[in-house]
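Sequence in, structure out.
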Amino acid sequence: MATRGRPCKSDVTVDNKQKIIDTTIELIKTHGSDFLTVRNVCQVAEVATGTFYHYFKNKDDLLMYFIMDISFDKCELKTPLSDISGRVCELYMNLINRYMELGRDFMRNFYTTGNQALSAYMGVTDGQFAAGTVMERCERELLAAQESSIIKENADAHVLSADICTIVKGCVFEWCLGDGELDIRAVVRRIIGRYLKQDNIS
């Protein structure tokens, strides 16, 4: 039974954090994201609420863990800048691969309009993407390509990055809706490749 209050030192372990994470995945898969509350997670994981708050600020912070454990800021890309569409696809594959690891059942419930954490992560604040996000890194890659005359000087890197994010979200949504036959990696590469090869971009 979960209890309230600050956790004792023995309760703050890597195992307890992993229990919270594993329980979250199972609850979303079996009951949907609406069922996910701090209380439900703690009860099923059998940890104190104080232990939960030692690791996560709230439910949204917990949900962010599943995409924010990827460091897009420090992610090393092997595709050369000259192949900007391939480079952007390689960047986004880190996110796609993470989604695929979690599985379609999880993602069907995670990728919803009610997930405020995801909406905040994928959104724009004061005209800028949040630092460390895949969109912010994508914009930097596009700006570097622009400086190297790989994409046109008058192209808006911020708009391009936002568009690419929308493309990927659409592909993920389609993958979630489908029966597993969609090759999401191939679709993302194909659509982003075509988008970045438009006459007004490259």
